[in-house]
Write the structure tokens for this entry.
Amino acid sequence: MMKIKAYAAASKEADLKPFELERRDTLDDDVKIDILFCGVCHSDLHQVRNDWKNSVYPVVPGHEIIGKVMEVGKNVSKFKTGDLVGVGCLVDSCHTCSACKDDLEQFCENGATFTYNSKDKHLGGHTFGGYSESIIVDQQFVLKVPENLDAKAAAPLLCAGITTYSPLAHWGVKKGDKVGVIGLGGLGHMGVKFAHAMGAHTVMITTSPSKSEDAKALGADEVLISKDEDQMKKHAGSFDFLLNTIPVGHDMNPYANLLKRDATMVIVGAVEPLDPLHGGSLIMGRKSIAGSLIGGIKETQEMLDFCGEHNVVSDIEMIDIQNINDAYDRLQKSDVKYRFVIDMKSLKES
Ligand code: NAP
Ligand code: ZN
């Protein structure tokens, strides 16, 4: 076993502080990864603050990991020392249930092992994420990162990327569809980039008029300010698909009214009770509301390859790990352009 440096929150009220954790030895199927960059997802903040009531402390967040392979176990043929790789929200699953057999490990019926805050099968206790120097992961959960991508800007693809790519792909968004992405943060900015790259007429739906110019630069054809009732009326009944990244419970009725007949709104943000939805919002027009959770490993690799081909990465603000608590304050205020990424050199050299 090996002791390494990390940053952890000791309780839901606590700031993140330096912490030492143990990683297992590299087993036969394992890849040991030197972490270069780690994105900061709003889920990290939710888990640190125990918003979902299932956090186990200390929490070492981080599931948008980019690094270089340091060592591989003897059964590993897909990766070699020096490869640029990624790790997202998943580090293990049962491999035998119907979800795993369908390449949907995120829905593993026996409980997927998430990168942090999950039961650690090897060491006991719980898993620790990417706000750390290195990580050891079973090869099946390690992703190849296209070498043409800027490594630091590719980090958010591992969660924000797949979480927005997967529903757009699953619900078959295609050229000419009118697609709305609700919330311009880490997920939303990737949603806009993917919808645009898939050829959709893409509308950024935001509470922040100040983000309009950025939304257009990211690929939005139009910007809809959700607080403006006249604008919302103008777009009523016109969307083929909506991707809703709002991180908290909210009134979905105004958004459901934007859907066309037979269209779907997919919720990825609010992992908590949502305000009552008027049945008529769905009944009148045979509309659907659905949910989606990250994506399986096969689809995550497909997404990374798509990004390699289309040169899609995130718009990022680089931070040192020492500034993580300020970054959380800004994330809470929807003030990030559009994903914080931690330069892990700042941890290693501290
Ligand atoms: P983020 O960077 O904070 O962005 C969220 C955006 O939502 C904000 O920038 C803001 O955009 C908008 N917003 C915030 N509060 C709002 C409110 N009360 N009403 C309306 N809009 C609001 O967060 P993120 O990292 O993109 O994550 C978004 C959510 O997805 C989080 O809850 C996260 O935990 C969840 N998540 C889910 C999955 C999954 O697999 N389902 C994966 C990753 C993350 P505007 O200023 O444009 O309005
Ligand atoms: Zn995430």
